[in-house]
């Protein structure tokens, strides 16, 4: 008998389907409030329905989509409670993050954060919303990495897709991208200078502003009871 | 053909093995710094080696044990870095927790916490270390539940076994159990009275003291470079 491992093609196809669908959700190509069907996705990707089904189950278990009857799905929208929960976690973790890294800032390397900030400036000028949100997420995850606490990094990674989706529409609010760039700049300055309390205050302000932008986007006045 | 689901016995046996081994680790029956073997565990439990192997892989992936050559394993001990990481997470999450719940304390139900505290008093008087640590974990997880933030609860649940293992030896330090009961009492009083800053300060003090006790237990002066 030949000593080779089976190719296990279905698994690899479902992983490819997963990546393709996730990418389309995070870029906004797959739209909120629109129903999509397994069969159409499969046709579009040029593959059979089984791997698409597997990919959808995975995305659903991560909370990115809701499955509907007749093999349809929609991108998850967020209730007021979802938004408040995510921002509570972010606030707990990210205030502790800037507090810690501003204490050790003289030993740290901020090049990655500088580069991200420069690209964010450009994306804001170009009104490249999707690119901007991607960079925004990278900025916060890169801050988390500087803590050198693998468990903080994991929590930040676990909520990164939610941060992204929530930001996707919030940055379309007039002036929000420029404001974010400004908030990031001030924050990074404070952290780098080792200004511990200022870093906490600025991060808190930034998260409050982001939370308000997200709530304004997702929770319309008439749907306040949605949560 | 009969429409019955196969019993899938191996899975259920490995789950039973998992629970039994995990329980022995958390109770301290399976000791730190001692090597155990798959074959002996299987003999002890009266089952075959396959389910035991599966249980050990699961416990290893959760970080509770380290697998050794020749199918042995040891309970994971913690480096200074592990301890600092876990306490950083706890501090970020639990300070935010008491801050939030002291803001809404008049609307909350503290019966569970009162009951746990009463039992902790008794366990301390009886010098029932293992029981005490179990109650300690319950106290902190119950505080997390009061935030009504499912994501905070999940983070607390995810680190509960580490909290438990770290506490298991720390509470054997002379006087530590009485001190913990006292710290919990003061903390609960402040939270209940809606004293926001006091709650943060008391939680911070409690976690600092616990962290020091754990470091004293796990990191001997000569092993400071272990991290």
TrEMBL record, chains A, B:
Q: Which UniProt keywords apply?
A: DNA-binding, Transcription, Transcription regulation
Q: Which InterPro entries match?
A: GntR_C, TF_FadR/GntR_C, Tscrpt_reg_HTH_GntR, WH-like_DNA-bd_sf, WH_DNA-bd_sf
Which terms in the Gene Ontology molecular function aspect does this entry carry?
A: DNA binding; DNA-binding transcription factor activity
What region holds the HTH gntR-type domain? 11-78
Taxonomically, which superkingdom? Answer: Bacteria
Pfam families, per database record? FCD (PF07729), GntR (PF00392)
State the signal peptide span: none
PANTHER family in the record: HTH-TYPE TRANSCRIPTIONAL REGULATOR LGOR-RELATED (PTHR43537:SF51), TRANSCRIPTIONAL REGULATOR, GNTR FAMILY (PTHR43537)
Name the UniProt record assigns to this protein: DNA-binding transcriptional regulator, GntR family
- The organism is Desulfocicer vacuolatum DSM 3385
